[in-house]
Write a structure and sequence with these properties.
Elements lengths: L2 E5 L2 E4 L4 E8 L8 E6 L6 E6 L5 E3 L7 E6 L4 E6 L8 E7 L3 E2 L3 E6 L1
Parallel strand pairs: 2-11
Antiparallel strand pairs: 1-3, 3-8, 4-5, 4-9, 5-6, 7-8, 9-10, 9-11
C-alpha cells in the first residue's frame, strides 16, 4: 500500500529555515502529483504547494517567494524548503498524493 513518511520538522525562530522531506513507497512516484498541506490549531487543512510529474509547481499565496517544493524521482522523495519562516507558518505539515494518501505529519513551530 501507499506510504508517505514526513521528516524535518522542528522548532525554529522567525526568519530561519527548515527543509521537510517526504519519502514515498508503494506507488509509482514519478508519475504522481505530490503536495504539501498544513493544518494550524483551530484551522482547516490548507494546500501549501504542489508539484506534478513534470515539475510544474503551485504555491499558496502566503508562501510564494519563501517556500520551494521539489522532488527527486530517483529517491522517491519530495521536499519543501522553507525560508524566512514566520510564526504564522506554525502548523503540522502533511505530505499528500492523489488527494487520498496522507503522511502522519511533521510539526513545524516558528517562534517570534
Amino acid at each position: 500500500q501507499v506510504q508517505l513518511v514526513e521528516s524535518g520538522g522542528g522548532l525554529v525562530q522567525a526568519g530561519e529555515s527548515l527543509r521537510l522531506s517526504c519519502g514515498a513507497s508503494g506507488m509509482i512516484f514519478r508519475i504522481n502529483t505530490m503536495a504539501w498541506y498544513r493544518q494550524a490549531p483551530g484551522k482547516q487543512r490548507e494546500l501549501v504547494a504542489s508539484i506534478n510529474s513534470i515539475g510544474f509547481t503551485n504555491y499558496a499565496d502566503s508562501v510564494k517567494g519563501r517556500f520551494t517544493i521539489s522532488r527527486d524521482n530517483a529517491k522517491n522523495t519530495m521536499y519543501l524548503q522553507m525560508n524566512s519562516l514566520k510564526p504564522e507558518d506554525t502548523a503540522v505539515y502533511y505530505c499528500n498524493t492523489g488527494q487520498k494518501y496522507w503522511g502522519q505529519g511533521t510539526q513545524v513551530t516558528v517562534s517570534s
